[in-house]
Amino acid sequence: MTGTETVLGAPAERREGREKVTGTARYAAEFDFPGRAHCRPVPATVARGRVTGIDPGPALALPGVLAVLTHENAPRLAEPDDPVLAVLQSPRVPHRGWFVALVVAETLEAARAGAAAVRVTYEEEPHDVTLTASHPQAYVPREANGGYPAVSEHGDPDAAFVSSATRVDVEYRVPPLHNHPMEPHASTAFWDGDRLVVRTSSQGTNAVRAALAAMFELPEDRISVTAEHVGGGFGSKGTPRPDVVLAAMAARHTGRPVTLALPRRFLPAVVGHRAPTLQRLRLGAGADGRLTSLVHEVTTHSSRVKEFVEQAAVPSRVMYAAPHSRTLHRVARLDVPTPSWMRAPGESPGMYALESAMDELAAELGMDPVELRIRNEPETEPDSGKPFSSRHLVECLREGARRFGWSGRDPRPRSRAEGPLLVGTGVAAATYPVLVAPSTASAQALPDGAFLVRVNATDIGTGARTVLAQIAADALGVPLERVRIEVGSSDLPAATLAGGSSGTASWGWAVHGACVRLRDRLAGHSGPLPAEGVTATADTSGEADADSPWSRHAFGAHFAEVAVDTVTGEVRVRRLLGVFAAGRILNARTARSQFIGGMTMGLGMALTEDSTMDPAFGDFTQSDLASYHVPAHADVPAVEAHWVEEDDAHLNPMGSKGIGEIGIVGTAAAVGNAVHHATGVRFRELPLTPDRVLTGLLGHEHPAGTLGA
Fold first, then answer.
1. How does pLDDT run across 149-203, given as a tens digit for each residue?
2. Sheet containing 440-445: which strands, arranged edge to edge?
3. Which of 477, 531, 581, 622 has its CA 20 to 30 Å from the CA of residue 177?
């Protein structure tokens, strides 16, 4: 691409693609510094209690084992802001899988053998890991995640519900879910005198540096953290994790470079998970289908280490016009691993419940579910009353229905069969907030005619380098190939993390600002550039974080066609189609990839992903990819992603919204609604596994249980 008129929006190829497919892209555990050692943690085997004794002798007697760190001899660290990082500082065991020792060895194999040889004794205490809607310790927190109030109420929703002509009162259950990125959490660290150098797999190296500086009581300028390539994170790498703290501790203790790559089976206990949610929806509507009352109540769990409240009721504050509403969150602090951010936190489980309930309401009304959603389109955001900066959900629904062939659908359940297969279709809407945070960037014009843009963005596999180069080329008015990008290091201009679908909007704002200033500076420059070039910088503090009078959200519509095998209970998704309104699309190729990736994640949430908390042992039984099933290519034969043109002047200079997570939000509900249309049976607990579906098809109620049991 040599012109500038189509830089933004063009399907430019990912800049790091060749490195990744040829294996030259280096990840956190692949930096083989001279003298590098390896380490492996020892997880606690009790659900709650304290360590009463650790015998490192058998491990130290093994060939190649260099050291065994425990709470008795590990470096003392300052108390972190995030208590999940306070590893090897106390004999307390807050949950099973909490790290109680670390073995450092010459090789990975020796470290693994050493960890197995460490002998630990415990004083066990009674534990509780089972979430119920009536849990006696459940309480209403002050806030849910993201600073959202835990409760929001308008009017008199209870009285309005009772007086509604049509009512739906239903409960939905989403199990614990796990991130499982392709690259496990890993860090390589070494001390260069009094300077700490880290290579880590993280969604934000500035946050890692700040945490390490506080815990090791160092100035931040004496710590360098790099995450040049990151093999996925899905929220679990959005905050520092124990691997980076342990690697730095081991490197200090041994005086050698140290690599720690967490075994996959350890991840469910130490890097976060989506907390289970028990959700109750009460929808009241008039005979015309217009909502009169909306009540969305959520009960979830957190750990005793810290409070984390999945904000699943929040999307119900945005979606539909209801004069009377209440959204409420309750949380029970249990002896479980600490939940954390995962793939559209809040929106994914919350919109599954809301959009399933809307489908149930449509059935009660005898109304087309697309028409029901359109009929309840709000003029302003229902919760805040703010006007939407742009909202094209209706266009997404109508365009999706057209592309999907929705008008030819027989609305009657069990109306289409192919031998033993029942075929059905479903629809769901989606929303995700526009999030943006301050960032800084620099742009430099070089004497050879190239431009160097530097920003501490993190490319977690989404193509951030490519899109940022497109933003820069567009602002500078130069061909794309003349722009070079440096990202992924705390030594670069500080920027926010890659999370909340906020990365491109945040980093791009700063990149655009720096490039516009550079362009203006060059316009007044005559003659050749100096050897050091010409540089301009930008800092979006005060702009990106300024209060907005607008409600800013992306929206989408999801359509699914499924075939349900009445003999085996197996559900196969034949088609997924999504249409999205997400501002200006900056790269058609990478955007489509992200939409399809999100929809595939939603498919996994609907059909395969499940985690069970063992009440006796206090751990997740599905702890690897052999038992925690994610979709494969064969599970997604036909996935289409489209978007509507959206011009929103109230976002950022590019007019873009985040697209990384909107794709997952409505998929699970669309699949579940399609299964109901196919079978006539309403399943209200995910995932829709063959055993659960077959039980429903046979007319037996699925045994009532509790999430976590």
1. 999 999 999 999 999 999 999 999 999 999 999 999 999 999 999 999 999 999 9
2. 483-486, 451-454, 440-445, 534-539
3. 581
Tokens of 192: 């260069």
Write down the catalytic residue from 16, 228, 609, 661. 661
Q: What is the mean pLDDT of residues 484-489?
A: 98
Residue 463 CA to residue 457 CA, distance in Å, equals: 11
What are the distances in angstroms from CA 69 to CA 73, 85, 195?
A: 6, 15, 22
CB count within 10 Å of CB 394 equals: 16
3-state secondary structure 125-141: CCCCCCCCCCCCCCECC
Give the residue from 443, 623, 436 showing the smallest Cα distance to 522. Answer: 443
611: amino acid identity, one letter: S
pLDDT of residue 636: 85
Under the banding of pLDDT at 50, 70 and 90, the label for residue 2 is: very low
The answer to whether 176 and 609 are in contact (CB under 8 A) is no
Cα angle value 633/639/645 (rounded, 5°): 145
| One-letter amino acid of 451 | F
Q: Where do the DSSP E strands lie in 266-344?
A: 277-285, 291-303, 324-334
- Rounded distance between C-alpha atoms, residue 369 and residue 405, angstroms: 14
Please enumerate in sequence order all residues whose Cβ is within 8 A of that of 637, keeping only pairs 6 or more positions apart, or say none: 574
Q: Does the active-site annotation cover 661? A: yes
Question: Contact 411/405 with Cβ under 8 angstroms?
Answer: no
Pairing of strands 186-192, 166-174: unpaired
For residue 432, what are the CA distances in angstroms to 77, 228, 284, 479?
A: 38, 28, 24, 33
- Band (699; pLDDT cuts 50, 70, 90): confident
Measured distance between the N- and C-terminal CA atoms of the chain, rounded to whole angstroms = 56
Cα angle: 186, vertex 188, 192; to 5 degrees: 160
Q: DSSP letter at 35?
A: T
Q: Which is nearest to 675 in space by CA: 491, 423, 297?
A: 423
What residues does 186 pair with on adjacent strands? 261
Least confident of 161-175, 238-252, 624-638: 624-638
10 Å Cβ neighbour count for 502?
A: 22
- Whether the CB-CB separation of 451 and 443 falls below 8 Å is answered with yes
**Once rounded to an integer, what is the mean pLDDT over residues 123-141?**
98
Structure tokens at 614: 């063992």
Integer Cα distance of 669 and 426 in angstroms: 8
Q: Is the pLDDT score of 701 beyond 70?
A: no
Q: Is the pLDDT of residue 109 over 60?
A: yes
Q: Is 456 helix (H, G, I), strand (E, B) or coil?
A: coil
Residue 524: φ, ψ to 5°: -100, 10
Cα separation, 592 vs 646, in Å, equals: 16
Per-residue pLDDT for 593 more than 90? yes
Strand locations in 223-320 (E):
223-226, 258-261, 277-285, 291-303
- pLDDT by residue (tens digit) across 25-62? 999 999 999 999 999 999 999 999 999 999 999 999 99
List the single range of 80-84, 684-688, 701-705 with lowest mean pLDDT.
701-705
Contacts of 648 (CB under 8 A, 6+ apart): 389, 390, 552, 583, 584, 655, 657
Helix (H, G, I), strand (E, B) or coil at 434: coil
Distance (Å, whole) CA 342 – CA 247: 24
In this predicted structure, what is the pLDDT of residue 637?
87
**Burial class for 605, CB neighbours closer than 10 Å (0-12, 13-18, 19+):** buried
Residues with Cβ within 8 Å of 685's Cβ and at least 6 positions away in sequence, in order, are 172, 173, 174, 175, 692, 702
Whether 702 shows a pLDDT value over 60: the answer reads: no
The strand order across the sheet containing 92-93 reads: 92-93, 49-55, 119-124
**Degrees to nearest 5, angle at CA 620 with 497 and 30:** 45
